[in-house]
Amino acid sequence: MHALTIRNLRKTYDNGNEALKGIDLNVEAGDFYALLGPNGAGKTTAIGIVTSLVNKTAGEVCVFGHSIDTELAAAKSCIGLVPQEINLNLWESVGNIVFNQAGYYGIGGKTARQRAEKYLRELRLWDRRNDIARSLSGGMKRRLMIARALVHEPRLLILDEPTAGVDIEIRRSMWEYLQAINSDGTTIILTTHYLEEAESLCRNIGIIDGGRIIEDARMSTVLRKLQREVFILSVADRLNNAPELQGFKTSLRDDHELEVEKGPGRDLNELFAQLDTYGIKIVSMRNKANRLEELFLRLIENKNGDGRAA
Amino acid sequence: MNIALNLVAVQTIIRKEMVRVLRIWTQTIVPPAITMTLYFIIFGNLIGRRIGSMDGFDYMQYIAPGLIMMSVITNSYGNVVSSFFGAKFGRHVEEMLVAPMSNAAIIIGHVAGGVLRGLMVGALVTLIALMFTDLNVAYPLVMVSIVFLSSIVFSLAGFINAIFAKKFDDVSIVPTFVLTPLTYLGGVFYSISLLPEFWQTVSRANPILYMVNAFRYGILGASDISIGHAYTILIGFVVLLFSACVILMRKGIGIRE
Lengths: 310, 257
Hints:
The complex is a heterodimer.
Chain A: E1 2-12, E2 18-28, E3 32-36, H1 43-50, E4 58-63, E5 66-67, H2 72-77, E6 79-82, H3 94-104, H4 109-122, H5 138-150, E7 156-160, H6 168-183, E8 187-191, H7 195-201, E9 204-209, E10 212-218, H8 219-224, E11 229-235, E12 248-254, E13 257-262, H9 268-277, E14 282-287, H10 291-309
Parallel strand pairs in A: 3-8, 3-9, 6-7, 7-8
Antiparallel strand pairs in A: 1-2, 1-4, 4-5, 9-10, 11-13, 11-14, 12-13
Helix pairs in contact in A: 3-4, 3-5, 4-5
Chain B: H1 3-23, H2 25-28, H3 30-51, E1 53-54, E2 57-58, H4 59-89, H5 93-97, H6 103-132, H7 140-164, H8 168-184, H9 197-203, H10 207-220, H11 227-251
Helix pairs in contact in B: 1-6, 3-4, 3-6, 4-6, 4-7, 4-8, 4-10, 6-7, 7-10, 7-11, 10-11
């Protein structure tokens, strides 16, 4: 079953800006799906339409089979949204924000209190329940928005850049939490600018640019398209010159770091074998750029290049 | 429509509104109490003694219903416009917009919040009025129904103002340039029988005149206008403004892109 189905979705704003030019998208139930794209690509507009914060110009959206045109309330009941911008009532207490959100979904009284406590504890905000939202740090506000989005236990959780401006430790703990709720059955759609986040969390990926979907596939399939990768190798002994390796481009970054570009059809065993013939010992190795980031940039560049050519 | 869901949602909005009103009681409850006390001291006590009686009533008694109604109207309106526009401005209106509750539930919840604040302030002003004069309620049902309907009308009007408001200035334009003049010219301080015929006719186009006079009728048993007209106008406004709110919310004007 599809958690989300989008057909030929279009949005033209009053100022004439065509934010979505007919996108199609399917997200399977239980998936952890990354929706990526540069700023202004149309991600937030698409999410806004799915969550009924933005009126669509044309197209169809179904959430777990419920059309937003004919069964809006049922569709909304399935969705939890963590928006990109902080949209908390900063003067309201942390506990009341989550409790009230349960009420908006028809969950009242004891159940709402129990749910609010559960999610505030899980997001490590229970001790701050009586404080106003304004007094929370940026990371805490983000976690509060996640607790608020989960209080009605949605089947589809949409997170629009949930870790923006959050420090690494909190980001990692948020990743673990999201993985846990995904493995419990919640479908997650994530937009993020941290591509390592998308690569490590998501199974499927859609890339949107200029209001169109330019890639929609499994993460592994998409990454396989990346035929060129650049690695940074730290070497044990000082190097004066970059060794010449057949099928690999090499250059020295400094006397203990070697940059190697692996072309199509080459593998790392071959690289290590050639380095071994020079007697170069490798201490450590890392990607120069995140693989998804590299692919993402290439897809966007190709698309822009095509656009210019046309 | 899921009625149980919407009932819980309405209760939640009302509770949230009451928490807000009581949290900022120095802005919501105290100022109208102080203003009305000054009205009673200056207009009722000091100036009123020189005026004597109005329509057969002591001047303090005569203006008390109008002042109570004035505070109910301005506080009902002010509560909804500031709360809903604040939610728009801070974007936490999205909490409600993404939820499955109906647009009517959002409107009713906020209007109920406005009515409750209006009635709380109205009750407080009544207590203050009783420190200055005696008020024997002539027709309790008329008094209660008129104050309740008037409060609903102005809460709905405040909701519409909040929908169209784009900045904080827009929130104060209607109260300053429309509501206050209409209230002062709505027979709070005088009987329209004192006016020349032409201005009496003009005054009859002011809906607040009907609310103030019908409320005065409920308390003192005296009115410049027909009570039947007052009910017709009030119920008409409730239906008209509620329908306008539902249509505006459905179209997403001012709240959805």
